[in-house]
């Protein structure tokens, strides 16, 4: 029997779209932010080494994972427009959403076999986990103007992030219980591994299963997408042509162009902080024992997620009262202060306080950035290409941000100096945002 699709703006369709955040946000929390960074560091500490031989040479653990991350985002920046072009012409971006969802989920499950002995397999799974998450996230973002009217977009974008935070916290609490009390779950030492490490590996499997299971609701209700009219030639490279076309259109869309410039700068800092926060906390904060470090870092991430639920909601309310750009300016100013404060962090309590403040502005800036961009788009059915441009800009920013962060830390000998460097990006972001609503001189 033919399926009846929900209408644009309907509660069912909006909820189905937002629910994908519930499904895939467990990756960004458990894998990117919490369990995997701790697991990765623990592997090297247990082996009592800091370097591993790979690709014909020795490399320290921190640069290794940083390089793989940067390479993954270069790949993501290339793949996203390719997918965009093909999806536009076949009129089915839902099939690509499914593919990259499953790619990411099964890669998470594959992290169960991550070890120093199987370093290549582990890094491949880590690489494709990143690819699956970010490309599917980009495709889902591109649906926003298709499923919601402009006046609905701030609210449903914030709801998506809030659902993501709630879902990921639920799974992380379960994983935290496994890691801290493995015996309660029947997990014991054996096979050359301590129970805590085994529990972390099981958490990777739980992420993959959660992601696959809960994404089904989204897949059932989202439409395939719009099919591009006209002759279909050079389908594979069409995505890059579409990016070029979007770039040309920005010449006449002054406000959108100015906003994208500001977004590129401050998002560079936001995403870099999301990727390195746990590594910073592990290295720069005096936790005491290994178990205290594990507990402290996971609690910090939980604090961020819980507070972020409130942050995303309050930000949506503030945008209604004061406007999107003014709200983003205030959030960026708070980020500047957070970066300065991070420079002076010493104790676990300092880190918890910073985590609480970050939580307030982390969810808010992501949700509002997405919906603001959607609002500024010109009238078009080609939403995939515009959001592809948005996501490629974000990913290039991540590559630049993570590289510069590492370079500053390496040159100065301290990750703390890098936090001040990131604060400058937020300050520049404020200045650029203030230009968005100014009248053009044309």
Give short descriptive properties of this protein.
single chain; 442 residues; mainly alpha; Growth Hormone, Chain: A; two-stranded antiparallel ribbon; 14 helices; globular
List strands and helices in order, with pairings:
Blueprint: H1 11-47, E1 51-54, E2 57-60, H2 61-90, H3 94-110, H4 119-142, H5 144-147, H6 150-180, H7 195-221, H8 235-250, H9 254-284, H10 290-322, H11 324-343, H12 348-376, H13 383-412, H14 415-436
Antiparallel strand pairs: 1-2
Helix pairs in contact: 1-4, 1-6, 1-7, 1-9, 1-10, 2-4, 2-8, 2-13, 3-4, 3-7, 4-13, 6-7, 6-10, 6-12, 8-13, 9-12, 9-13, 9-14, 10-11, 10-12, 11-12, 11-14, 13-14
Textual characterization of the structure:
This protein has helices at 11-47, 61-90, 94-110, 119-142, 144-147, 150-180, 195-221, 235-250, 254-284, 290-322, 324-343, 348-376, 383-412, 415-436; strands spanning 51-54, 57-60. The protein is mostly helical and 442 residues long. It has a single domain (11-436), classed as Up-down Bundle (Growth Hormone, Chain: A), CATH 1.20.1250.20. The chain has a two-stranded antiparallel sheet. A hairpin with a 2-residue loop joins strand 1 (51-54) and strand 2. The protein starts with 10 loop residues before the first helix and ends in a 6-residue tail after the last helix. The mean pLDDT is 81.
């Amino acid at each position: 029997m033919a399926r009846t699709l929900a209408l644009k703006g309907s509660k069912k369709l909006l909820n189905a779209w937002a629910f994908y955040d519930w499904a895939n946000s467990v990756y960004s929390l458990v894998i990117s932010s919490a369990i995997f960074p701790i697991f990765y560091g623990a592997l090297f500490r247990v082996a009592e080494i800091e370097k591993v031989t790979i690709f014909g040479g020795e490399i320290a653990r921190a640069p290794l994972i940083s390089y793989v991350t940067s390479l993954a985002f270069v790949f993501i920046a290339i793949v996203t427009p390719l997918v965009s072009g093909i999806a536009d012409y076949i009129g089915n971006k839902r099939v690509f959403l499914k593919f990259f969802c499953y790619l990411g989920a099964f890669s998470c499950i594959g992290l169960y076999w991550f070890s120093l002995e199987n370093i290549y397999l582990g890094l491949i799974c880590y690489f494709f986990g990143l690819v699956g998450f970010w490309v599917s996230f980009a495709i889902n973002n591109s649906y926003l103007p298709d499923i919601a009217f402009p006046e609905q977009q701030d609210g449903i974008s914030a709801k998506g992030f809030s659902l993501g935070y709630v879902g990921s916290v639920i799974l992380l609490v379960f994983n935290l219980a496994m890691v801290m009390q493995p015996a309660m779950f029947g997990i014991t030492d054996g096979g050359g591994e301590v129970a805590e490490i085994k529990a972390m590996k099981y958490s990777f499997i739980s992420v993959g299963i959660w992601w696959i299971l809960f994404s089904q609701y989204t897949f059932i209700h989202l439409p395939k997408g719009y099919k591009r009219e006209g002759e279909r030639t050079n389908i594979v490279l069409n995505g890059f042509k579409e990016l070029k076309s979007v770039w040309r259109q920005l010449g006449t869309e002054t406000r959108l162009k100015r906003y994208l410039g500001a977004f590129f700068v401050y998002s560079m800092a936001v995403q870099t902080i999301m990727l390195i926060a746990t590594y910073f906390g592990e290295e720069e904060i005096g936790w005491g024992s290994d178990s205290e470090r594990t507990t402290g870092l996971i609690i910090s991430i939980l604090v961020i997620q819980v507070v972020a639920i409130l942050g995303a909601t309050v930000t949506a309310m503030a945008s209604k009262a004061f406007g999107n750009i003014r709200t983003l300016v205030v959030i960026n100013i708070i980020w500047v202060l957070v970066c300065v404060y991070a420079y002076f962090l010493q104790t676990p309590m300092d880190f918890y306080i910073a985590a609480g403040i970050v939580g307030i502005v982390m969810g808010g800036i992501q949700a509002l950035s997405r919906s603001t961009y959607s609002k500024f788009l010109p009238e078009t059915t080609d939403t995939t290409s515009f959001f592809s441009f948005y996501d490629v800009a974000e990913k290039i920013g991540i590559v630049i941000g993570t590289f510069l962060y590492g370079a500053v830390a390496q040159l100065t000998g301290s990750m703390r100096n890098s936090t001040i460097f990131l604060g400058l990006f937020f300050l520049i972001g404020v200045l650029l945002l203030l230009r968005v609503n100014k009248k053009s001189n044309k």
